[in-house]
Amino acid sequence: MKKYLLFILVISTVSKAEVLIGEWKGYLPLKVSVVKEGDVIKSFEVIEKEKNNKAFKIAYPALQKSIIEKNSPDVDSISGATETSKAIIGAVKDAVK
Questions:
Q1: At residue 8, does pLDDT exceed 70?
Q2: Boundaries of domain holding 36
Q3: pTM for the complete prediction?
């Protein structure tokens, strides 16, 4: 009986995660996939983007870290990658709205 109860608790904990999709249609159109558990942003990744630029390679990992640490897309843009930052932040905001 105890084994079954533990199994049920694990399933209910795992099932609270949700995957949300957001997009930005400005200068750098892109889509993101955001994983949330309750009110906590666990992770996000860019799943589609039209342009590949150097600024993206700088901004993306920095914004992943700051958005997840702050648990909010209300973070500062990355210097030297302002437009790319706006696109990533905007898509995450769209996903979690």
A1: no
A2: 17-96
A3: 0.82
Residue 4 included in any domain: no
Distance CA(56)–CA(80), nearest Å, equals: 10
Do the beta carbons of residue 32 and residue 92 sit within 8 Å? yes
Cα 40 to Cα 15, 53, 58, 81: the distances in Å are 14, 30, 24, 26
Do the domain assignments include residue 27?
A: yes
CA angle 46, 26, 23 (to 5 degrees): 35
Residue 33 domain-assigned? yes
Q: How many domains does the chain have?
A: 1
Mean pLDDT of the chain: 88
